[in-house]
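Please study the protein below:
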Amino acid sequence: MRLRVALLVALLIAALAPLRANVNPHFYYLNPAQLDLTVLLPPPPDASSSEERSDEEQVAAAVAARSPAQLFQAEEGAKRSVFYFTPAVGAGFTSARLPTTALLFSHMRSDVANLIDQAKSYWDRPRPNGVVRNRGSYPSGHAAFAASAAIVLSQLIPSKRDAIFTQARTFAENRILLGLHYPSDVASGWTAGTLAAYVMMRNPGFQHDYAAAAAELRKANL
């Protein structure tokens, strides 16, 4: 009996460990107290509202209209990585050539994800029908990453700004095409990512890492 209790306790501790780890997530460039998304973003549409029905209809229409090729491309390009923008920047834009740049955007991705997770927990919006739920739907973390990454990357490589933002919009809107997010999730995620980029760019640690990434990109002729 004691052995069973000990095993149950051990399993409970193991199950709760990831939850404890997320209670006080580490931020590199953001202080979450600076950016309360539950205040700065509008709430998601009410479940009985016309806005909610419109969200549902738009997701259903996007899923019904997508081609197999579009679905494949959206699934293949769903990883939150700055090197998603390689087609916009050029073939030399790779993590192997640009480790300092990779680290800057890895830290940004982590900060934005942690910030978004706090907002998701607050609103706890259900995902579109049929989606296995790991986190809430509102706001979209992918859209937030797309916006923040596009803002910073286009500052680093201004000659590619238009192409970078075109790709960022596609990355964000693919969440609707995949049936994983509502349009209002994506819109507020984009706003959240814009706010996050604005705050991060004023952080001394960010400015130091940004300067190092800029020097690396110049050396790589990008």
Confidence is low (pLDDT under 50) at residues 1-21.
